[in-house]
TrEMBL record, chains A, B:
Coiled coil: none
InterPro entries: HTH_LacI, LacI/GalR-like_sensor, Lambda_DNA-bd_dom_sf, Peripla_BP_I
PANTHER family linked to this entry: HTH-TYPE TRANSCRIPTIONAL REGULATOR GALS (PTHR30146:SF109), LACI-RELATED TRANSCRIPTIONAL REPRESSOR (PTHR30146)
Organism listed in the record: Paractinoplanes rhizophilus
Taxonomic lineage: Bacteria, Bacillati, Actinomycetota, Actinomycetes, Micromonosporales
Residue numbers spanned by region Disordered: 318-344
One Pfam family it belongs to: LacI
Keyword Disulfide bond: no
Stated name of the protein: LacI family DNA-binding transcriptional regulator
DNA sequence: CCGGTGCCTGCAAAGGTTTGCAGCGAAGTT
DNA sequence: AACTTCGCTGCAAACCTTTGCAGGCACCGG
């Protein structure tokens, strides 16, 4: 069928092992022989068969990348960065979409295990115990989840949620709704934990709405609930939900930011393009993708690495947040200057 | 290391070939034996090594999927659909991002060739000759490009561009700008061809601006050029450019659709969420992804299939298009009824 | 001239699986 | 009773590489 090491050996008059060494250990072969072999290989268009190589070396030069939903705009930048970084190291990437289903996650990891050097699981929905078990079957790096003993890169959404809620209380909001994310999401729990604590510290009331699917629709459908709860500000699990929510609020007759302030999380490209432009917590997705790949590739080198990499997040204030009914902080342009405002 | 067919054979007291047959040709093995083998396999957690299998059968159960830019919102729905369809047939998907670079396309196809059953190239940027050559090295299906002898699924953007331009001339626009896409894009040429012809038939003048990178920025930066050309309507190569253009127009003091009408192509999710909502030509991306995978998988079965599948497109009229300075068609609500309007 | 050293190359096993062929026992045929 | 047929299983080669080991050769020092 295609050209093998054998053909090259025949063409250049050497043994197949010499051809093999020409590619995998060039310093072991005579420069003269080497160049002849390379010339023949070039001419025949020889490419080593990685599957055959993997069979004996155990290294596949492939990586598995598992995400909950490729169509969720949060993931593509991460996938792109990971793919680019992987290819820089001569690795290829399998991408699998689990449709937010933990059972599919497990199945896919197992199915991929034999043909990759490791798997990257982004925002997993399965429980920690299962992840720990899987990490015994194949090197794993997890994005957006912290588990002792499992290498991970996490975006510091707790910090982000804190900044977001502080922003809202500073603007004078005292009744805040939190649109939580999908069941099983570590990120969602982190946000909730941090937002709750921050709200309490800011003397605001925070009510949780959810769990919801992390999509536009997930936000759209709960607009009524948010209004009924009397919230004047909302922190959403992600930008997509925030944008959907804004649509829903408009339909219900509420205006953003005049009646309700909305903050998202992720800073997907979309958020700069909607009107009003979304105030949101920017997460470094591309950096996370790169870092996760690096971590996975380093994984094999030394002993089982177990590092947790934390990436900072940042509040980006745009047009979807405005003053609330309560006292505003001094810094706020149109606000009333009230001493004893919320500390930052 | 991991559990092999050998371990299962030992555990169940049969020869490895019997184990192999239990999985790949169950009807050849005694039901009693079979169930015993299956039980052992289950207990040991055996999974066939696909690389080893591929070595001998030549089928890898992998597919390569090559796109110009994962972060371009046009692609994720296609990738998602392709991945889902592939996994339905027990195949896994390699995804590669070429950054719009034809050289990378070639390199990636070659690198992937040995470890996939076929490659799907979406909106390729390389020239036809190269594609033809590559298709001799590995089964290929091309999306959004027509080449004789190469199986393809194409969205009928020519039809879409015609509908779009007719829509604009019907609204009374007589000076239309076309933002063309990246160099090497078949789609861009098709659009240009069809738009030019349709404009001529509608007695409108069409000026081409470009080529441009197919991104938000690609549209943003040419806003001035569009205004300088005196265009009252624009058809953009894709939605992303259209949205960027609208931003640019606003910055330059022109309003959409009051001063300039804008039509995009693709109907990405984003287009429903911007304000004004974008009038655009909807392309069936998910269907294309599914169809392309099906075509690739069918490819091997019979002789070299060479079918070209055409998918219909559809004009979705939203809020970014309005009346132009010329006479409007009767159907237009606020328009002036002028006989002799453009035929559809 | 001999032993030693070092560079390069060939040999063959190994990795996990599939598959054509042959063998075996039991059942069926004549 | 001999022979065929059939269903099932084992054997071994093959797929393409990598790699430890050993052999060949030239060169060096003594």
């Amino acid at each position: 069928m295609s050209v093998t090491i054998r053909d090259v050996a025949r063409a250049s008059g050497v043994h197949i092992s010499t051809v093999s060494r020409t590619f995998s250990a060039p310093h072991l072969v005579n420069p003269h022989t080497r160049s002849r072999v390379l010339a023949c290989a070039e001419e025949l268009g020889y490419r080593p068969n990685r599957a055959a190589r993997a069979l004996i070396t155990g290294r596949t030069y492939n990586i598995g990348l598992i995400v909950a939903d490729i169509a969720n705009p949060f993931f593509p930048p991460l996938i792109k960065a990971a793919e680019s970084q992987a290819r820089k190291h001569d690795h290829h990437i399998f991408v699998a979409d689990t449709n937010e289903d933990p059972a599919v996650e497990e199945e896919v990891v197992r199915a991929l295990a034999k043909q990759v050097d490791g798997v990257l699981i982004c925002s997993p929905r399965m429980n920690n115990a299962l992840i720990e078990q899987l990490s015994r079957e194949v090197p794993l790096v997890v994005v957006n989840r912290q588990i002792a003993g499992i290498p991970a890169v996490v975006m510091d959404v707790a910090q982000g949620a804190r900044l977001a809620v502080e922003h809202l209380t500073t603007l004078g909001h005292r009744t805040i709704a939190l649109l939580s994310g999908p069941r099983g999401s570590w990120t969602s729990r982190e946000i909730r934990r941090s937002a709750t604590a921050t709200a309490r510290a800011g003397h605001a009331e925070l009510t949780v709405v959810g769990p919801n699917p992390p999509t536009e629709l997930g936000g759209l459908t709960v607009a009524e609930d948010v209004l009924r709860a009397g919230a004047t500000a909302v922190l959403a699990y992600n930008d997509l939900m925030a944008i959907g929510l804004i649509e829903g609020l408009f339909s219900a007759g509420a205006r953003v930011p005049e009646d309700v302030s909305v903050v998202g999380i992720d800073d997907i490209m979309l958020s700069r393009l909607t009107r009003p432009k979304l105030t949101t917590v920017a997460t470094p997705t591309a950096a996370a993708g790169r870092a996760a790949v690096d971590m996975l590739l380093a994984h094999g080198d030394d002993r089982r690495s177990t590092a947790h990499l934390h990436l900072q997040t940042e509040l980006v204030i745009r047009d979807s947040t405005g003053n609330g009914p309560g006292p505003h902080s001094p810094a706020d342009p149109g606000g009333v200057n009230v001493p004893g405002g919320v500390a930052s």
